[in-house]
Amino acid sequence: MLTKKNACLVFEDGEIIKGYGYGATGLSVAELCFNTSMFGYQEVISDPSYADQIILFTFPHIGNVGVNPDDNEAEKTFAKGVITHLKPNTPSNWRKTDSLNNWLVQKNIIGLYGLDTRELTLRLRDKGVINVVICHQENCDFDYKKMIKLAKGWSGLDGLDLAIKVTCGETYNWKQGHWLSPGKYNNSKKNKKIIAIDFGIKRNILRSLSDLGCEVKVVPATTSFKEIIEYNPSGIFLSNGPGDPKASDPNVFKLLKNLTSLKIPIFGICIGHQLIALTLGAKTSKMKQGHRGANHPVKNLETNSVEITSQNHGFIVDKQSLPSDLQITHISLFDQSIEGLRHQELPIFSVQFHPEASPGPTDTLYLFDKFYNLCLEYNNAKKK
User: Fold this and answer.
1) Quick one: what percent of the chain has pLDDT higher than 90?
2) Which of 65, 119, 312, 319 has most Cβ atoms within 10 angstroms of its Cβ?
């Protein structure tokens, strides 16, 4: 049993909170945010949208079912740290292949426990996200002055383009559907070509597209308009991802402008939603504390129904900036912020939340069907 506190969290204002470490050792500077999910911690941590962030879990029991390769949302992880109230215990689950502790070591992610996570969550809720340094040193040799300087000097996510950091290095095809049993996945017949532009894409998005019969080609965020058109796709998907959408490479906006001129179906999620809005003339801004969890209520304004969604974003589309041809389809019931948009003339729509869940409810999986049907209509129109 640990007696010395061998890990700490250092705030940019100089405050220091000591705790106990697990996972990787070392030091990282990042933005501290909280997630309210009660399950799916592996999917959360492996989501590329958490690049350069430290995840504070509000649910105390994290790590109790271990980890397994099927639940990774990406090959690489980009989160900088994990904070939990309790130490991850010995895992017990028939799907587990390893412990959360060992997995964090392999992924070079620092873990910290023994803090009052409720107090930290309330602080983030009231004051907003904050830049911190997380440190785990077995010898407890902490250079606090250095860490305070690092936290103060880090610019944060505002103005930071992280898509270039997390996007795939080369184009690849995705055929795997949803998980059925260990090592087995749904593999439906593929009949529609979809281009998925990777800004930090989650695997469950790709599985959701594949299940519908989409032949998905995933391309880097740096892919040119010419390369995409040569594939002759039936639709374009814009993925989730981290960072400030406004800071994206100017070539991304040039690409999207060209794609919208084709009147081809376009579906965006998370940062993909924000990039569509920016391309069509709207503006985005950074939120105070963001929306992160698997239990966020959203109102569908087209059906007047409430849908429970999975969310992970720190930027939003500004309502006041919307051009007249963009219509709001979904709003957050927490703060009335925009959660969905559609173009009134073009086959373009987007959502801020994650309909693929993983983790979370599947209330909004129908959006993938909507995209697929638009692709069918587009193909049929081309044949006439």
Assistant:
1) 92
2) 312
